[in-house]
Design brief:
Strand order of the largest sheet: 6-5-4-7-8-9-10-11-12
Distance between the termini: 114 Å
CATH class of the largest domain: Alpha Beta
Order of helices and strands: HEHHEEEEEEHHEEEHEE
Mean pLDDT: 82
Helix content: 25-40%
Low-confidence stretches: 18-33
Largest sheet: 9 strands, mixed
Number of strands: 12
């Protein structure tokens, strides 16, 4: 008798497990066959205002066609992602069906590290990877401005050239140093491709060269400011040259 009940329990347990599995599969199929009724947009870095919901709507405009049923399991998520990614202000995006059975579109905007205004008057932003993207008619972020003979180049794979990386390295170094970020108002690329800095105080420029040995160059600058300009005055010199290793070459006005 005990054996009979044991077998019965096993059979019933198996039937319950199969039934539960069938229910789960059926529920999943029902969920997938449901029509998309709502699209939910989310900007992951909302402090930047480059991308608005209206800019993303065209990627899902086909859902407004009420003559067709757009079921969750038949919506081409990859195609929507590709359409959203064509927006020049979008760094990356993810499209998926969320737990509320809504079509979810998450967007990460490009984050400008600096703004370029080159000698031809062309202006654009560079993100942290050196990718160029246009100014926005509705949003102007507070980022360092670089002017002059900025040469934006790319290699055969479309990666930004060495000058772009030098420029980004310089901007990041200045941004990470509180004293420098409060001192420097603008970066200029001269005809030779060297970086010159324009400070907020004084009428001189600071010639840096490239972004190599920045810590050493700016340490020399700080020492010169403390021991030289503090005594002689901020308007004594026309240019402070830090380009050459171990040297500070200060050019007086009128020489």
């Amino acid at each position: 008798m005990k054996k009979f009940w044991h077998i019965t329990k096993l059979v019933l347990g198996g039937l319950l497990a199969v039934g539960a599995l069938i229910l789960i599969v059926a529920t999943q199929k029902e969920k997938q066959s449901q029509a998309v009724k709502r699209v939910q947009f989310k900007v992951l870095n909302p402090d930047y205002k480059f991308v608005q919901e209206a800019d993303l709507q065209p990627a899902v405009a086909f859902l407004s066609d009420t003559t067709q049923v757009h079921s969750l399991n038949k919506v081409d998520l990859q195609t929507i992602e590709e359409k959203v990614a064509k927006n020049k202000y979008v760094e990356r995006c993810k499209v998926y069906i969320n737990n509320s059975k809504k079509l979810q579109i998450d967007v990460l905007q490009r984050q400008p590290q600096l703004r370029v205004i080159n000698n031809s008057g062309v202006s654009y932003y560079l993100d942290e990877n050196g990718i160029k993207f246009p100014l926005s008619p509705t949003f102007t972020p507070n980022v360092p401005v670089v002017t002059g003979y900025v040469r934006y180049s790319q290699d055969s794979l479309g990666n930004p050239g060495a000058e772009v990386h030098h420029l980004l390295s310089l901007c990041k170094f200045i941004e990470d140093d509180k004293q420098l970020s409060s001192l420097i108002s603008q970066i200029v690329v001269n005809r030779n491709g060297d970086f010159e800095l324009i400070p907020r105080t004084g009428s001189h420029t600071i010639l840096i060269g490239n972004s190599n040995l920045l810590e050493d160059k700016f340490n020399r600058l700080k020492i010169f400011y403390d021991e030289g300009l503090s005594r002689l005055g901020w308007d004594t010199y026309n240019q402070i040259n830090l380009k050459y290793e171990g040297q500070v070459i200060a050019k007086k006005k009128g020489t």
